[in-house]
Amino acid sequence: MKLRLILAGLIILAGYSCKTEPTSSLADYQGEENYSVIMGETKVGYLKAETSGDTINIDYDYKNNGRGPTMKETIVLNTEGYPISWSVTGNTTFGNAVDEKFSLEGNEASWTDATGSGNTSVEAAQLYVNQFGSPYSAVLAARLLMKAPENTLPVLPAGNLTLTKMEDLTVQNLSGEGEMALTTYAISGAEMNPSYFIMDDSNRFFAYISPRYIVVREGYEAEEKELRELAENYSAERYEKLQKEYANNYDKKVRIKNVKVFDPKSLSLTEPVSIVVEGEKITAIEAADATGEGEVVIEGNGGTLVPGLYEMHAHTGDNGALLNILAGVTSFRDMGNNNEVLSKLVEKIESGVLAGPRVTRMGFIEGKSEYNANNGILVASEEEALAAVDKYDSLGFYGVKLYNSMNGDWAPAIVKKAHDQGLFVAGHVPAFSNANAMLRAGFDEMTHINQTMLGWVLEPEEDTRTLLRLTAMKRFPELDLNSDKVQETLDLFVANETAMDPTLSIHERLMLSRNGEVTPGALDYVENMPPNEQRSLKVALAQIADDEEDKAYREAYDKIVETLKMMKDKGILIVPGTDLGGAFNLHRELELYTEQLGYTPAEVLKLASYDMAEYLGHDSLGSIEEGKLADFFLVPGNPVEDIKAIKTISMVSRGGTFYYPSEVYPAFGITPFTEKPEVKE
Predict the structure, then answer these.
(1) Any idea of the CA torsion for 610, 253, 328, 290, to the nearest 10 degrees?
(2) Which of 331, 545, 581, 617 is most deeply packed, by most CB within 10 A?
C-alpha cells in the first residue's frame, strides 16, 4: 500500500538576509522538542526538533512493517520567520535517497528535489512546498498563514495554501496541574486532501494527526486514541459534506437513455438501449428511445455503460472511498485495516452518510515482531492466531489474510480452522517460508507476485520482513522460468486452484519509476492532478544506485510479466487489485493486463466486474441486468476497443445513487476528464 501521511515540508520565501544571533521569529522557541510517532496504537519512531539561534534541526525516523523514512532536516529562518536556507537528507519509506535543498540569495530562490531543479525570482513572500520535509514543517507555515489575508498564500511551484482553524481543545499538563490550551488546524491546497495538526497556545507544534498515523509531543502518547478519533472526525466531516453536496438520490425513476451496455457474458456491447433504475436496482432494459412519465433522464449519447469495477486489494479509508466511486470502482475487498476504523467506515458507507464502494472484509492476522505491521490483530502464538480466526468469523468477515511476521509453521492449522468455518484464506508468504509451503497449507489466494517469486531466489535464512522483499527482486532476471523449482510452484497453484493477486501496478511503480520522470502508470492523468501530487508522481520509490541497478530492476519487472503470462496460460486466476488505493491505479492495473499479459479489453472488463462478483459470491453484482443492483458507470467511448476509455467517466451509479465526476473533482484540486452528461429532471 502507498502512505500519504505527512504534509510535505513547507518553506517560505522572502528576500531577507540571514542573521547569526537568535531572531525574533524563533526567540520564543529555543531548545529541544521531542515527539513520538505512533501507528496502530504502537510507537514506531520519533521526531526531534532542536532550535538554536535562527536554525532548526529536525531528526525524523519511524519504521512500520519493516520500513519507513529516515530524514534529517535543517531550516534557517530570518527575522520574519521565513526560511532562507533549508535541506533534507535521508531515505524514503522504500529506500530512495533524499538530498533536497533550498536557498534564497537576494531575490533569487532555487531548489533541488527528486524531480530536478527549479528557480525563480521572488518579489514578495511565497510558500514553497517541498517533497520530503517532516510534519514539523507545518507549524512554520501556519505561523505565517495566520497573518496572511484570508489565511491564504500562493505557493511554489504552483497553487495556493490555506490554513483553516478547526477547534480549540485542552489537555491536562504532564504535571497533573492545570490544562494546556490547544488548537487544531488544517492546511489544504497542495494535495487532494487537507492535513491536520495541532498547536499549543504558544504556537508550538503539539501533534500531527491522521486516522492511522500520529506524531505527538513526548509524554502525551496516552492521548493517541483521542487524537486519532479527532482526525477520523475531521476527515468524516469533510466527506459527509461532499456526499451531501454531490450525491444525487432521485425520488423517482432514472432512465439512462441511448447507451450501449457492456455484457461480460458475451464480451461485447449491446445495441443501444435505455436502462431504468428505481431505488437501488435496475428495473428495466428498454429501447434506446423509450420514455416514461415522471422520470429523470440522463442522456447517454451513444456511450458505454460498464458494470462497476472491483478493487481486490484495498485498504479502505474515507479519503479514497469517494475517489474510487468517481473512478467507477463500486466494490472493494479490504485486505487489512484497523478493525475499529473499518467498522465505522463501512457503517457510514452503507447508511449513505459517506460515498464509498461496497466492502468485503478480510481479517488481517500478523505475528508480533520488531518488524510487524501494526494492523488488524497481532498474535504471538498459534493459539492466538486461531483465536483471531474465531474473532473474525464472529464479526462476519469474508476471510483472513496472513502477513509477513507470521510463523509459517502455524499456517496449516490456521487455514484448516478458517476453512472449517467457511472463511477464505489469502496472504503474504511469512518470513523464512516460501510459496510452496503456503500453497500446501491450503491458501486460496497468494497476494503480490513478488511474494511467490522470492521463494525462487532467496536463501532460507534471508529475512523478508525487511526491505529485502523488495530489493531482492533485482535477482529475478537470472530466473529460469522453465526450471523445476518454478514449475513446481506453478503446478501447486493449478492443483490447488489457488488464485494470484499480483498487484502488478505497484510493481511497475516500484521497479520502473525514476526520479524526475512521470511514473508510467500516471502519464494519462498526471496533468489533471494538484501541483504536489504531480511532483509525487515523478519520484522513484526504490533507490536506483547506478545503471546496473536500473537495468536489473527493469529486467526484473519483465520477468514478473513473463511469470504472470505463464500463470494466465496455465489457467491460474489473476485477481485485479493494486494495493495503491485503487481509482486511477486500478485503471492502470487493468491497462497493464491488456498491454502486457495478453488479455483483451473485454476480457479485462469481465475479469474486474463479473468474474470478481462470481469469485466473492455477489449474485446481485457484476453485470447490468434487470433485478441486479445499479452499480455501473458511463463513458463516452468504447472500452471494448480501447481499455483507456474507462479513464473518462461522466457518470457513476452506486446502488442508484448517482455521481457526476466533473462536479466533484474540483473539490480535490483535480481537473475533470470529461463533461457531465445532460440530466433532465
Answers:
(1) 70
(2) 331
Cis status of the peptide bond prior to 157, with omega within 30 of 0: yes
Residue 211, preceding peptide bond in cis (omega within 30° of 0): no
209, β-bridge pairs: 196, 214
Cβ contact 329:309 at 8 Å: yes
Answer CATH for 249-308+618-681 from 2.30.40.10, 3.30.420.60, 2.40.50.1020, 3.40.50.300: 2.30.40.10
Query: 276 near 255, Cβ under 8 Å?
Result: yes
| pLDDT value of residue 374 | 87
- Measured distance between the N- and C-terminal CA atoms of the chain, rounded to whole angstroms: 41
Which residue type, as a one-letter code, is found at position 377? I
Return phi, psi of residue 551, to 5°: -65, -40
Name 339's Cβ contacts closer than 8 Å, sequence gap at least 6: 363, 376, 377, 395
Cα angle value 64/65/71 (rounded, 5°):
40
Q: Is residue 661 a contact partner of residue 646, using CB atoms and an 8 Å limit?
A: no
Question: Which residues sit opposite 274 in a β-bridge?
Answer: 286
pLDDT for position 125: 57
Mean pLDDT of the chain, nearest integer: 92
Distance from C-alpha of 58 to C-alpha of 398, rounded to nearest angstrom: 44
User: CB count, 10 Å around CB of 318?
Assistant: 23
What is the pLDDT, as a whole number, of residue 387? Answer: 98
* Calpha distance 645→662 (Å, rounded): 16
Q: In the numeric block, which cell numbers belong to residue 614?
A: 462470481
Is residue 33 within 8 Å of 56, Cβ to Cβ? no
Cα torsion through 393, 397, 398, 400, rounded to 10: -70
If you search the block for the grid coordinates 431505488, which residue do you land on?
Answer: 279
Name the residue ranges covered by the structural domains of the chain: 10-244, 249-308+618-681
- Residue found under cell 515482531: 369
- Type and span of the H or E element at 679: strand 679-680
Q: Grid cell 420514455 — which residue?
A: 291
Q: Over the stretch 34-68, which tens digit does the pLDDT of each residue have?
A: 999 999 788 999 999 999 999 999 999 999 888 88
Compute the CA torsion angle 365, 367, 368, 371 (nearest 10 deg).
Answer: -100
Of 512, 514, 495, give the one whose Cα is nearest residue 504: 512
Whether residue 129 contacts residue 531, with contact meaning beta carbons closer than 8 Å, is answered with yes
* Alpha-carbon radius of gyration of the chain: 26
CB 103 within 8 A of CB 85: yes
User: What cell was used for 676?
Assistant: 457531465
CA diameter of the chain: 80
CA dist 445 and 227 (Å) reads 36
Query: Judging by DSSP bridges, how do beta strands 268-269 and 358-367 pair with one another?
Result: unpaired
The residue type of 634 is L
Residue 527 cell numbers, joined: 496533468
Amino acid at 603: E
What is the DSSP track for 200-258?
Answer: ETTS-EEEEE-SSEEEEETT-GGGHHHHHHHHHHHHHHHHHHHHHHH-B--SS-EEEEE
